[in-house]
Automatic annotation (TrEMBL):
Coiled-coil annotated spans: 427-461
Protein name per UniProt: Flagellar Assembly Protein A N-terminal region domain-containing protein
Taxonomic lineage: Bacteria, Pseudomonadati, Pseudomonadota, Gammaproteobacteria, Alteromonadales
Species whose genome carries this gene: Alteromonas naphthalenivorans
PANTHER family per record: POLYMERASE-RELATED, RNA-BINDING PROTEIN KHPB N-TERMINAL DOMAIN-CONTAINING PROTEIN
Keywords, sorted A to Z: Coiled coil
Boundaries of every Flagellar Assembly Protein A N-terminal region domain copy: 83-261
InterPro entries associated with the record: FapA, FapA_b_solenoid, FapA_N
Length: 551
């Protein structure tokens, strides 16, 4: 370009631009100058757009006015890489920021480590990350900003409080994990040792709290941990602390162990070889263990768990805990009234190996070993037919009300007998609670808003000494009201989350086959199987039931 000269200073650090208007044939175009600067030795150097524009504008002005004054301007320079460390307030990390050089020098890893020490970074510095950043900076265009975390502190690990380790299993846990015979075959009849424990049997171990582990930040400051705390035994019935070990809980009576909510109870156990007309009905305040069958029209009522190592036929069994039937349960149905004469009612969960013609009510889960048919079920949990880890049993011709998944190998039957599953009652309870809480929150918010106006007026007034006590009481009541409102609003959020979770939990899972005649219901949303499906998953999402094959 005529009249344009690009040169370096003596140190070859700065770019000088000389513009001679007397040699111009026309006004100089700044884009042409930029193109020239982007080639040759100046292509990786820093160029100031402001300085370049100022020089070109001045020279063009001289050209138009006939002034031959030569314009000289320093428009660029060679810049080394820029290094910066950024450390947050907690000093648990340190970020390195590298601005790639404009034709200048890049730092070495030793230089960066020295700068880190000057920035009070003494621990947790990673050399590999820094080396990778330097390689990236050399390959990147000039002026590229690269930021990475190069140093990390170690957070203190707080100590763990005492934990409780049951030394004896609950009866339901044992029945769901049958023992293994030789050859690794599972024997559903082999339930291990007898469920009852003798007096002075260790039943619960408390572990000592740990001190935790110290940590550090990148500045090298030590971060002390919070040690764990001793958690006191929540002694249940029939237990006592060991004399020679304060971390061991012993049984003080012979009975059936039950560990729940960090509390170990030993229920005084009634043991018999069967319940029939010879023994009469059983009504017991503790647990009941029947090593035999329960015959027709017999009753068992117990405050604790009921475990029956036998068969139940057309009987009434009621438990304040779990009901466990290691064989089957069977009853008859009065076709005219639709009533069942075999009832299982429990506040906990219920397990039966196989069943037909029974009515079940429980607050927990219903687990079935092999098959359940022609029955009526009402539970607060899931219904699982088959082994817990892979349910492959059969479930058909039942009327079920549940609040969790229904899972089996086969749902329904070839004959098309109806299998009805209704998830509505549990969801309706959640909606009722949510509506009640929403109304309560609305009323509290209205009252709180009115009280706030009154409090604001009080605060703006000069209160006489004799009324200051009453004003303080009013402020305290207002603060308590705010705390109550916050607590109830948190409960509203919890129940909203529970509503979403409920819809995610309810589903039908057939691990082998799903036959026609299977229905699922949630309020007014229904799904019905009109054909035979291979392994199927029926779930509820976006106010609709959906079918998906299990792959």
């Amino acid at each position: 370009m005529n009249g344009v000269t690009i040169s370096f200073d003596k140190t070859r650090t700065y770019i000088n631009l000389t513009l001679n208007p007397s040699e111009f044939s026309k006004e100089i175009d700044i884009r042409q100058v930029k193109t020239e600067l982007a080639t040759g030795e100046t292509k990786r150097l820093y160029v100031s757009d402001a300085a370049l524009k100022s020089a070109c504008d001045t020279a063009n002005h001289y050209f138009k006015t006939g002034d031959n004054t030569v314009v000289q301007e320093r428009v660029g320079e060679r810049r080394n890489a820029e290094i910066e460390f950024r450390i947050p307030e907690d000093a648990m990390t340190a970020n390195l920021v590298i601005t790639s050089p404009y034709g200048g020098k890049s730092p070495t890893i030793n230089t960066i480590k020295s700068l880190a020490l000057k920035n009070n970074i003494h621990r947790g510095l990673g050399s590999r990350v820094i080396e990778a950043m330097l390689v990236e900076a050399r390959k990147s265009p000039p002026g590229t900003i690269i930021e990475r975390t190069v140093a990390k502190g170690l957070p203190a690990r707080n100590g763990r409080s005492s934990r409780f380790i049951p030394l004896v299993p609950n009866a339901l846990e044992r029945i769901l994990k049958p023992q293994t015979n030789e050859g690794e075959r599972v024997d559903m009849r082999n339930l291990g040792e007898v469920i009852c424990v003798k007096v002075d049997t260790p039943v619960l171990r408390r572990t000592e709290p740990t001190l935790g582990r110290s940590g550090f930040d990148v500045r090298g400051s030590k971060l002390p941990p919070i040690p764990g705390e001793w958690v006191e035994f929540r002694k249940g019935t029939g237990t006592v602390q060991a004399d020679n070990d304060q971390n061991l809980l012993m049984s003080s009576i012979a009975g059936m162990p039950k560990y729940q909510d960090q509390t170990m109870n030993i229920d005084d156990t009634y043991i018999c070889n069967g319940v029939n007309v010879g023994t009469g009905h059983v009504n017991y305040e503790g647990a009941v263990l029947v090593n035999g069958d329960v015959t027709e029209k017999m009753q068992i009522k117990a405050e604790g768990d009921v475990t029956i190592n036998g068969f139940v036929e057309s009987a009434h069994i009621e438990s304040g805990g779990d009901i466990i039937i290691t064989e089957g349960a069977m009853g008859k149905v009065n076709d005219s009234a639709g009533e069942f004469n075999c009832h299982l009612i429990a506040k906990g969960s219920i397990h039966v190996q196989h069943g037909q013609g029974i009515e079940i009510h429980c607050s927990g889960n219903i687990t079935v070993g092999r098959q359940l048919a022609y029955s009526k079920l009402h539970c607060g949990g899931a219904v699982i037919v088959g082994q817990i880890d892979k349910p492959m049993g059969n479930l058909f011709a039942c009327d079920i009300v549940s609040q969790d998944r229904i899972e089996a190998g086969t749902l329904g039957a070839v004959s098309g007998s109806m299998l009805k599953v209704d998830f509505s009652p549990g969801f309706a309870q959640l909606l009722e609670r949510k509506d009640a809480l929403d109304e309560l929150v609305r009323q509290l918010r209205e009252n709180n808003s009115k009280h706030k106006e009154k409090i604001d007026i009080l605060k703006s007034k000069k209160v006489p000494k004799e009324l200051k006590t009453k004003v303080a009481e009013a402020l305290e009541m207002f603060n308590n009201e705010n705390a109550l409102l916050d607590w109830i609003e948190s409960k509203v959020l919890e129940i909203s989350d529970a509503k979403v979770q409920y819809q995610q939990d309810i589903k039908l899972i057939a691990n082998k086959k799903l036959y026609p005649g299977v229905t699922a219901k949630l309020n007014n949303r229904n799904w019905r199987s009109e054909r035979e499906y291979e392994r199927a998953h029926i779930h509820y999402d976006s106010h609709q039931w959906h079918y998906e094959p299990i792959i």
